[in-house]
Amino acid sequence: MPERSWDSHHVSSHQAKRAGTLRNTETLETPSMTPKTMRAIFLILLIGLGLALSGAFISIRRASAGSHAAPLDRVIFLIGNLPDQSLICLTANLAAWDDRAILLLDSPNLSSQQKSFLEVYKPDRVIPVGSFRESKTELEGRLGVKAASMVPAGSGPPLALWKDLFPLADRVVLCPAEPRPQLLQASCLAGALGAPLFMLTGQPGEEAIFRQQLSSWKAQKIYAVGDCGKPCRDLKNVRIIRLPDAEATARAHRLQLKKRGPIENVVVTNPMDGQRGLTSMSALAPWISVRHRAALLLTNEKGDDASSILRDAIRSPDLRRVDSLLIVSDLNAIPMERRPNPVAGKDQFIEMEPMTPTGSDPFTLATGRLFADDRALVPLLLARQEFLACKTSPLKALVVSNPSGGLPLLETFSRNTAKELANSGYHTTALFNREINPDHIRQLMPDQDLFLWEGHFATLTKEYKMQEWTEPMMPSLVFLQSCLALADGKAQPFLQRGAVAVIGTSTRTYSATGGACSLAFFDALLYDHETLGGSLRQAKNFLLVYSLLKEKRLGKGAKLTGANLRSSWAFSLWGDPTLTLPSPVLPEDTLPAVHQTIQGHTIVITLPDARYRKAISNQYQAEMSPNGRLAGLITLDEDEENVKHLVPFIFAEVQLPKAPADKTPRLRSRLPESRWVFNWDARRKCGYLLFMPRAKDQGELRFNVDWQDETVDESKVRQKKTAVVQH
Fold first, then answer.
1. Domain span at residue 23?
2. Which of 491, 410, 498 is nearest to 455 (CA)?
3. Residue 194 forms part of a structural domain
4. pLDDT tens for residues 13-22?
5. Gap between the Cα atoms of 592 and 611, Å rounded
6. 36, 75, 223, 228: which sits with the fewest CB atoms below 10 Å from its CB?
7. Maximum Cα interatomic distance, the chain, rounded to a whole number of Å
8. For the chain, first and last CA: distance in Å?
9. 317-372 pLDDT, tens per residue?
10. What Å distances lie between residue 597 and 289, 435, 560, 605, 607, CA to CA?
């Protein structure tokens, strides 16, 4: 992980680079010396004197050492109690200075978790900013770390921070504190510009402070958002770009993002969450947007229009390349969607994230949700990710399956998932059935990078008393393949203890579809090196095409096709969908895996000769290739009574970036059409291919691609797409 440090020379040159060539003339006139102005300037002088007396309160500096740079500092900004508007402004300015800066929100409720993080991360400096209920010494004792002098911050401009972070700034974003949507978009714009954000709060002397700061910055351009008329009047040698509202500011933000390439991420939040008495996650949305170079979308007050906003957004030219969706909101501010359960059972409705497709439409966005009852947990989750990029010790995985002994089919899936993890370099501990001991699990969990639980969640909570386990965990991924596992009281404890993400479902699932989903997820993670969100998207699309293949082979009367659809809807990620886990070192005896290549107009799937040793659980058996798939389709053994074999599948996510516009790929292969399906995502120019290889299909299997013209008529487009899927 690249570490950071800043000395006065580095900060100055860093900001001068942003400022570009400065004009020789002064950028603004000296304001007339009215009593009000004099009071404001006197306030500035007092602040400057205080900074001079306190020394380098934010000592994010290093001394030059000839041609060799000194070791870079690891700096953390610890933000104390601030009003929402001030928090938005402060985080925007820190992100504009460095969009990878590590921020933590101080929270007495999370002191032990933050202390554990700081002990492992070992920052060179912790900079407290804002209001704290305790002295610096008491704060250091609570968090177990030395801290720099506290930097006061309140409702006014963060002059103390600007002194060091922005000694020069050729561009400035100016915005009133209200309305909230406008301020959120202005914060994103400031971050994308690398420019300070000056928030107007209506305090006396604010205009004079602003003008004086412009002079210090030698600013040449002001992005004036909303009603900023008075502070901008009579300014000389400064270009003013007026952005009348939130929409205009969002367009300006996207324009800046596109200068660095296509926009691949989008953040959606409810700007009114705090006013509804909910946890104000929206205050963190601009900072998260800047970190992810993401466009920011805002819902209505109820948050129930997220899907429609997203559908409109990804059709726009600016956002047509969006790949990942970060929902920065709790489950009340942006609620889960609900649909009737496609399988008869106890759950009348299935909950799913916004933008879950209908019918045979593929999942097109890699989606994750960032939230917590105590929002201080979210910056801590993102900070933990810093460990992953620099981890040097072997990666470990713990797989625990079928603790009750009553889910042998699920255990068969789990045994193959464990094989995939070990084949990819994870030091894997796999516990099944009678091998499982809760004390052993509790002992192993803190050191794992991956934890997969496959079984009844009640076993983990009611029998094992997992909620009473408090040992800090390594920054890890937790996959809870259980019914009803994704709920605040069940999943949040893992995040509090150290996990970076949790995957699960808030509904009931069949063990076969759940096991198929987790296996497909880890295969995408291990062999395609997908992000967490991308891996879950691929697993969902695998379940979707499997349901299409079942229907194709067995007709509308195929049993339990709705179970696959239900699982594809229901599994969700609580965490950062853009996060990529480190790749472990492959063992010497790694078996070659199924892989794909594109040769001209041909998709080539290479099937390795080697397979895993047969996985056996009770009467179920499975033999699959590395990076193969299982989906619950069973054949009976003719020679051995009551032995059920899981049919192996091959699945591939096929990228066709040169796909002609307004055309749909149609595949041809020597493999009979009854044994495969292909589902096309025209927006991503990506298809999902699933097939059942025959015994004689070895080496390479080819699928030739032809291109079929689309039509403008929506109904015909839908009919044609359905025909392609059935072929």
1. 8-261
2. 410
3. yes
4. 333 333 333 2
5. 9
6. 36
7. 100
8. 47
9. 999 999 999 999 999 999 999 999 999 888 899 999 999 999 999 999 999 999 99
10. 34, 41, 33, 7, 12
As for how many domains the chain has, the answer is 1
Closest among 110, 46, 120 to 78, alpha carbons compared: 110
CA distance 223 to 210: 13
Residue 540 identity (one-letter amino acid): K
Q: Is residue 191 classed as helix, strand or coil in its secondary structure?
A: helix
pLDDT value for 391: 80
- pLDDT, tens digit (0-9, with 9 covering 90-100), for 35-93: 444 444 334 333 333 333 233 333 443 322 222 333 347 899 999 999 999 999 999 99
Check which CATH number belongs to the domain holding 90 and give it: 3.40.50.11230
List, in sequence order, every beta strand (DSSP E) within 244-389.
265-269, 294-298, 324-328, 337-340, 349-352, 366-370
How many Å apart are CA 615 and CA 620, to the nearest integer? 8
Q: What was the pLDDT predicted at 230?
A: 82
Cα–Cα distances in Å, from 298 out to 40, 41, 277, 289, 467? 36, 38, 18, 12, 35
Per the document, the length of the chain is: 727
- Distances in whole angstroms, Cα of residue 124 to Cα of each of 72, 344, 567: 9, 57, 45
Residue 505 zone, left/alpha/beta (φ > 0; ψ -120 to 50; rest):
beta
The angle at the Cα of 167, spanning 164 to 173, to the nearest 5 degrees, equals 105
In this structure, is residue 473 part of a structural domain?
Answer: no
Residue 270 CB-density burial (10 A; 0-12 exposed, 13-18 middle, 19+ buried):
buried
Asked if 415 contacts 615 with a C-beta cutoff of 8 angstroms, the reply is yes
